[in-house]
Amino acid sequence: MEKKKVLGISFGRKMSNTEVMIKEALLQCQAAGCDIQFIRADDLDIHICTGCISCVVGMTTGRGKGGCVLKDDFHIIDEALMECDALIVGSPVYEMEPTGNFKVVCDRIGPSHDITFREATYKEGLAAGKPESELPDKRSFKKRVGALITVGGAMTENWLSLALPSMYAFTMSMGIDIIDAYKYFGAMAYEHVLGNEKVMHRMEALGKHIVEGLFAETEEERTKWRGDKEGTCPVCHNDLIEISHSGTRVECPVCGIAGDLQIEDGEIHVHFPPEEIKRSRLYYAGKLEHSTEIKTRAVGPGQIPDLKERKQKYLHVGE
Ligand SMILES: Cc1cc2nc3c(=O)[nH]c(=O)nc-3n(C[C@H](O)[C@H](O)[C@H](O)COP(=O)(O)O)c2cc1C
Known about the structure:
The structure is a single chain. By secondary structure, this protein is an alpha/beta fold. The chain has helices at 17-31, 54-60, 74-83, 100-109, 115-127, 163-171, 197-214, 219-223, 274-277, 284-297, 307-312; strands at residues 5-10, 35-40, 86-94, 97-98, 145-151, 177-184, 242-246, 249-252, 257-264, 267-271. The model has no long low-confidence stretch (mean pLDDT 97). The chain has two domains: 5-228, Rossmann fold; 232-319, no CATH class. The N and C termini lie far apart (62 Å). Bound molecules: flavin mononucleotide. Residues 12-13, 16-18, 92-96, 151-154, 159-160, 187 line the site of flavin mononucleotide.
């Protein structure tokens, strides 16, 4: 049987906290018989997404396969993602969120790797008799498990407030099932995480959780949440909620699902009905809802016939 491949990607400094934490988890996977690969993202030259959307337009018109027009090192991450069966991605916290480069890579994975766009293009292309080489990479549809790690120097946990919720952007479009996530705060109270046994043990556990997910026999066991706490949202397990100002309705900003906020015995609870849970954007159905709205409601050029003339007024403003 072919060995399972576990990929670790770090956005931290070379051999600093994030990198060593990911590598500890990878070593557990290796000890369990997996092949491992590690990428230090900041060593690569990855350009920002220019917003041309040719990746998505290519797929929706059946001419492209989800590729990017930019020529840089992104293909290294892309190929590693396609090859892996499991992913451990880690980022330091910069200004309450993952690093800027983390977001750059998320945008490059973004819509171009959305499995609902890719699957539709793949199936339509096959039906039209196109060769595999002209279709989206079929490894895109592999079921994968993943874990997120974030590291903040601050002693106060709320300085990491948006980090883990934002990190789902890395795995969402590919439909990678996140089964564990760990937020290490107070990193600056230690010279290095290697001086913090508790965190290093937690990384061993995280690696073992990935192995459990990889070799699980049922879908339920594969996707079982193995994080430290259940959290408020039953899908992403984050505690971030958005007030909708419509009665007691709230939303999970990561999943895009609505729930009802209740106070029971003085504690806040959010009840997310099953029909909402099913449409989380972390699941296929939620992504399909989005790709369908784009395909059916986004308008192309020509809706405003004098658009070029109208833009003239703004062309050189403030230059
Ligand atoms: C630009 C910048 C912004 C930072 N902002 C935060 C922050 O908002 N919250 C926090 O907890 N730590 C913050 N830190 C500290 C880093 O999270 C910390 O140094 C972390 O250990 C870096 O990870 P690494 O050691 O894996 O590189 C910031 C560091 C930098 C360089």
